[in-house]
């Protein structure tokens, strides 16, 4: 299996030192770059998460571009209805120019009532606003006139034909992304379902591929919670409580669930690398994915443990699945 390897950070830490949280997240991009990861992703959150959250991903990625050499830099996702798409296109083009063409643009609708209210947007129109914003963003990144006659963005954008992704949460959403010519981003877990996440999401991926009619090859980015350690007990000690507490707070999850059920609902792969590889080989969506995007959220391991987990993903887990590190930009 030939696949690109990514990691996703939600830029969370512990305690109140947010500057350190941001520095640690930047360090992950440097480490991942050195390990050969193909893409580093950040998620946008305007409402604070426990211990942080990143409202301005393109500012963050500009700094990451200066500290890295080859890793691609992406958002999974930018909440498009809360952005001016022309202004967003300018930010994207600046980061792409600074990074030497390493940007990947993931967009979606989000869904937080508080975020939409803060920006004066109607959350009930989020899908419509996403569609409208994406059309303008595509035009702007194609260096077409936008906003008014004679206006195109500066700096001129590179070719983003194959670099725009959409996050989806249904088969209909997957078909919509395919018709728009976007790559597909599939979340780490399917919320609101009793069935295993991969059983729910595989039909979404199939619907996307069936609806795809562009001449270029489509990409499917599969986000998964993957946390390797020396053994399952060690991994559980580092992530279990965080995942459990997050599940107890999560809308739509049943009250009073235990740690094992919390880990199941977040579709977690954890333990010794060999155990994770065996479980990932049974993952139903992975065979049609072109990108495996690993993340540790909602767990917030300490910084050294996080780096060690990235190392194990790059040196033991991903190679066993057919991935090879690249020494050059992809």
From TrEMBL:
InterPro entries referenced in this protein's UniProt entry, alphabetically: Bact_Lucif_Oxidored, Luciferase-like_dom, Luciferase-like_sf
The organism's place on the tree of life at top rank: Bacteria
Family annotation (Pfam families): Bac_luciferase
Keywords carried by this UniProt record: Monooxygenase, Oxidoreductase
Gene Ontology CC terms: cytosol
Domain Luciferase-like: from-to ranges: 7-286
GO molecular function, one term: oxidoreductase activity, acting on paired donors, with incorporation or reduction of molecular oxygen
SUPFAM superfamilies named in the record: Bacterial luciferase-like
Protein name: Flavin-dependent oxidoreductase, luciferase family (Includes alkanesulfonate monooxygenase SsuD and methylene tetrahydromethanopterin reductase)
Record lineage: Bacteria, Bacillati, Actinomycetota, Actinomycetes, Pseudonocardiales
């Amino acid at each position: 299996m030939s696949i690109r390897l990514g990691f996703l950070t939600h830029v969370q830490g512990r305690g109140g030192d947010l500057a350190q949280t941001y520095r640690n997240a930047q360090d992950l991009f440097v480490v991942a770059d050195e390990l050969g990861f193909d893409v580093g992703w950040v998620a946008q959150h305007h409402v604070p998460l426990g211990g942080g959250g990143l409202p301005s991903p393109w500012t963050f990625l500009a700094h990451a571009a200066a500290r890295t050499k080859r890793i691609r830099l992406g958002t999974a996702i930018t909440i498009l209805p809360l952005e001016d798409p022309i202004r967003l296109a300018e930010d994207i083009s600046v980061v792409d120019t600074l990074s030497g063409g390493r940007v990947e643009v993931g967009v979606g609708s989000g869904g937080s009532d508080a975020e939409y209210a803060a920006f004066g947007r109607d959350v009930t129109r989020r899908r419509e606003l996403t569609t409208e914003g994406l059309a303008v963003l595509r035009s702007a990144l194609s260096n077409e006139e936008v906003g008014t006659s004679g206006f195109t963005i500066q700096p001129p954008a590179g070719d983003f034909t194959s670099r725009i992704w959409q996050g989806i949460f249904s088969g209909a959403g997957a078909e919509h992304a395919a018709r728009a010519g976007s790559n597909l981003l599939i979340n780490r877990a399917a919320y609101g379902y009793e069935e295993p996440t991969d059983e729910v999401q595989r039909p979404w991926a199939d619907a996307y591929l069936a609806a795809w009619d562009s001449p270029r090859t489509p990409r499917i980015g599969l986000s998964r919670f993957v946390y390797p350690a020396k053994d399952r007990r060690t991994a559980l000690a580092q992530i279990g409580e965080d995942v459990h507490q997050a599940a107890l707070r999560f809308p739509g999850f049943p009250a009073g669930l235990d740690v094992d059920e919390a880990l199941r609902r977040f579709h977690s792969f954890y333990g010794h690398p060999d155990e994770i590889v065996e479980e990932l080989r049974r993952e139903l969506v992975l065979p049609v994915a072109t990108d495996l995007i690993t993340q540790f959220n909602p767990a917030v391991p300490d910084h050294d443990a996080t780096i060690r987990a990235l190392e194990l993903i790059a040196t033991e887990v991903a190679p066993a699945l057919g991935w090879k590190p690249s020494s050059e930009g992809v």
